[in-house]
């Protein structure tokens, strides 16, 4: 008996197991539940027609529950056929035993469906932003879904839908999603999209994940890993920024890992967003339509290139953005340099920091400094506030050259104020600047060396390009050595004065050369005409005139300059006494053409001597008018006039040159009494030349013609100088 019971138990267990296995894999075919399932679907989804095929009862061993399943049912929603693969309905076991079966859960799995078929269903749904978007912005694609419905008392309490999307095309704002695929899963108040692949406006999405949370408002957050290869046209589709118009060419290639979070209100309006992106630039090429001119850069920037550059980007709806880049860059045709760049900005201000190598024709004329073709290490911090630029720090190191600047404020690229500036630079292997500037009630400049090679030009500035246009201050300067040219040094130079809107309107200064020679500069305003009067006396004229090519070869002498000027015009009288000219190319050419004996040899030897030179010049923005130049010496005398165009540099000069022996012979024949305006006939042997110099810089042509008589003007000047 005991053995029988054991065998029976084994048989029963085996029977149950086989039954469960059969019902699990094959099921039991029946039509008992057809009407129940059809009515349940129709009840919950109106305007639906359903025709179920044979239904099988199966067992879900995992969940220990019964369910019925049907394959390829015929379902029509309005006039749209829905391609369903399978429907499973889970039966409440207790209700099954009572004879009144209730469905707790329905699973619906679809075959692959085209977007066009889904649009046919969506168009009958209630108006919503989601419906509008799907009908208008989704172009094509294919998808499958598996819909799980949980029911209680014939009401849907919860749902979950999962599936796959392939070859999906959609347009949203300026974004075009193409050839995309992903896996999705959505519940009543949440959802996710995984394994995203596709293209967005030149971005190739390699992998992406997106999460959805929907309670009182919708939250979307996710991550997208992308490759990108973009040109100007691609970026134009992504942004409405007009600054893209400044680029002739733009190409960017690299990788990006983008983390984002977007919050919507009930109307699907964006209320907040955050983006945190990291990546690298394999290449970024920018070519400007018009080369950019920047402060202190002599060369305009025509193109900018980046490579092997890591970047980080953070921004949010509060318009707070952080951009950082670290890598390699190149300006124009200069060599590649390392850099580190950070940019933090919001709706009110922008902060930039930059450190790295810099190579360009970097020039600061006021201190005669240039870093042309040399690599400088630069660190700077900039604040941009409502169009103003605050240079919080600027440190430049290039070999022995050092420039440290703090708190420079610019308005419209003009300096307004600063804290302090320290400068130490080298020219031709020697220190030419070593001084400090402190900006207070008075601008104080103190130090051991200052290169003032461009001082004369700065004093005579009459245009609006003045870098110091917004500065109005008293100024004091005490420098041990002032360099005006490579050979002449001014010692113990002191200056007090006043700057009004970037221009000197008052100066009193003194300095010493060697062996008791000195320099005296004064500037004042004429009360009657309100014009500025500049007076310069120098025992070394070359130190003041070194910037003017006309005076190349000048040595010795005493200089006196008296200039009256305003913003429109200057009138200058210049006198040099007892000087020599040596190796002056223009004068050498003129004497060679005139064939004046050994004067050319004198120029290349000890120099050609002159007793006195007087010059009168009128200058405005368009032209420099040489009203008269008269130079008299023991060998030759010259009278000249003409003009130089400021814009083109075109030179047009004419004059007369007469050897001294000829002039002396002529003057000896003149009556002692009376002013002589018209020359009389003179004896044989009188000669001289008239000459013309005309042409663009580097292409000046000189012509000469012999003369036998002198002009009244030349005679008058000769008589004045021999009295």
Task: Describe this entry's structure for a reader.
The strands form two sheets. The chain has a 40-stranded mixed β-sheet that branches. It has a two-stranded antiparallel sheet with strand order 21-22. 15% of the residues lie in helices and 57% in strands. The protein contains twelve helices and 42 strands. Among the domains are: 1-172, no CATH class; 173-266, no CATH class; 582-722, no CATH class. The protein has 723 residues and is an alpha+beta fold. A hairpin with a 3-residue loop joins strand 13 and strand 14 (218-231). The longest helix is centred in the N-terminal third of the chain and has 24 residues, at 2-25. The chain is elongated, with a radius of gyration of 46 Å.
Q: What is the percent of helical residues?
A: 10-25%
Largest sheet: 40 strands, mixed
Per DSSP E runs of 2 or more residues, the count of β-strands stands at 42
Q: Report mean pLDDT, rounded to a whole number.
A: 77
Task: Note poorly predicted spans.
Answer: 672-686
Number of helices: 12
Q: How does the overall form come out from the CA principal axes?
A: elongated
Computed structural class: alpha+beta
**Chain oligomer state:** single chain
N→C terminal distance: 164 Å
Cα-atom Rg, whole angstroms? 46 Å
* Beta-strand percent range: over 45%
Keyword list:
723 residues, 40-stranded mixed beta sheet, two-stranded antiparallel sheet, alpha+beta
TL;DR?
The protein is of the alpha+beta class and 723 residues long. Among the domains are: 1-172, no CATH class; 173-266, no CATH class; 582-722, no CATH class. It has twelve helices and 42 strands.
């Amino acid at each position: 008996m005991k053995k029988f019971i054991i065998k029976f138990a084994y048989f029963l267990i085996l029977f149950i197991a086989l039954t469960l296995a059969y019902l699990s894999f094959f099921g039991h075919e029946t039509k008992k539940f057809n009407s129940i399932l059809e009515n349940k679907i129709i009840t919950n989804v109106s305007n639906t027609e359903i025709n179920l095929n044979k239904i099988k009862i199966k067992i879900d061993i995992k969940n220990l529950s019964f369910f019925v399943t049907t394959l390829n049912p015929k379902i029509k929603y309005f006039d749209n056929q829905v391609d369903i693969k399978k429907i499973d309905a889970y039966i409440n076991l207790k209700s099954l035993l009572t004879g009144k079966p209730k469905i707790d859960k329905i699973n619906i799995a679809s075959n692959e469906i085209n977007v066009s078929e889904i649009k046919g269903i969506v168009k009958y749904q209630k108006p919503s932003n989601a419906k509008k978007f799907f009908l208008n912005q989704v172009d094509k694609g294919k998808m499958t879904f598996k819909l799980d419905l949980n029911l209680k008392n014939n009401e849907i309490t919860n749902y979950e839908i999962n599936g796959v999307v392939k070859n999906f095309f959609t347009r949203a704002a300026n974004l075009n999603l193409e050839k995309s695929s992903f896996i999705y899963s959505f519940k009543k108040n949440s959802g996710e999209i995984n394994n995203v692949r596709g293209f967005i406006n030149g971005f190739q999405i390699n992998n992406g994940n997106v999460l959805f949370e929907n309670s009182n408002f919708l939250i979307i957050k996710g991550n997208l890993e992308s490759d990108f290869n973009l040109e100007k046209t691609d970026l134009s589709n992504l942004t409405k920024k007009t600054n893209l118009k400044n680029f002739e060419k733009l190409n960017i290639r690299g990788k990006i890992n983008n983390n984002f979070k977007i919050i919507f209100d009930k109307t699907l309006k964006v209320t907040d967003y955050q983006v945190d992106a990291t990546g690298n630039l394999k290449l970024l090429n920018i070519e400007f339509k018009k080369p950019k001119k920047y402060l202190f850069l002599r060369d305009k920037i025509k193109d900018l290139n980046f490579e092997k550059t890591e970047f980080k980007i953070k921004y949010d709806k509060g318009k707070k953005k952080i951009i950082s880049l670290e890598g390699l860059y190149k300006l124009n045709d200069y060599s590649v340099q390392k850099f580190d760049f950070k940019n933090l900005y919001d709706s009110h201000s922008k902060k930039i920091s930059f450190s790295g190598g810099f190579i360009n024709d970097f020039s600061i004329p006021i201190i005669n400094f240039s870093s042309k073709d040399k690599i400088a290490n630069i660190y700077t911090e900039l604040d941009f506030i409502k169009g103003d630029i605050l240079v919080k720090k600027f440190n430049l190191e290039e070999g022995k050259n050092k420039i440290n600047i703090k708190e420079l404020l610019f308005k419209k690229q003009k300096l307004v104020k600063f804290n302090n500036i320290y400068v130490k630079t080298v020219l031709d292997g020697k220190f030419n600047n070593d001084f400090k500037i402190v900006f207070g009630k008075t601008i104080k400049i103190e130090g051991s060396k200052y290169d003032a090679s461009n001082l004369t030009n700065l004093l005579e500035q009459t245009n609006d390009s003045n870098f110091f246009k917004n500065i109005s201050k008293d100024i004091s300067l005490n420098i041990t050595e002032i360099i005006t040219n490579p050979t002449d040094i001014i010692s113990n130079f002191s200056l007090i004065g006043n700057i009004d809107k970037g221009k000197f309107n008052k100066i009193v200064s003194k300095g010493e050369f060697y062996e008791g020679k000195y320099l005296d500069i004064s500037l004042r305003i004429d009360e009657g005409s309100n014009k500025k009067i500049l007076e310069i006396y120098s025992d070394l004229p070359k130190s003041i005139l070194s910037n003017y090519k006309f005076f190349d070869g000048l040595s010795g002498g005493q200089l006196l300059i008296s200039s009256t000027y305003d913003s429109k015009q200057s009138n200058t009288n210049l006198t040099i006494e007892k000087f020599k000219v040596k190796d002056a190319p223009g004068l050498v050419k003129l004497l060679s053409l005139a064939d004046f004996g050994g004067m050319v040899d004198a120029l290349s030897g000890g120099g050609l001597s002159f007793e006195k030179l007087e010059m009168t010049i009128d200058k405005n923005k368009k032209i420099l008018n040489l009203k008269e130049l008269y130079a008299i010496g023991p060998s030759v005398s010259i009278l000249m006039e003409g003009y130089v165009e400021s814009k083109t540099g075109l030179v047009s000069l004419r004059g007369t040159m007469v050897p001294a022996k000829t002039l002396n012979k002529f003057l000896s024949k003149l009556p002692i009494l009376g002013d002589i305006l018209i020359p009389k006939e003179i004896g044989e042997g009188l000669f001289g030349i008239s000459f013309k110099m005309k042409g663009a810089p580097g292409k000046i042509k000189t012509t000469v013609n012999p003369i036998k008589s002198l002009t009244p003007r030349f005679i008058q000047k000769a008589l004045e100088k021999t009295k």
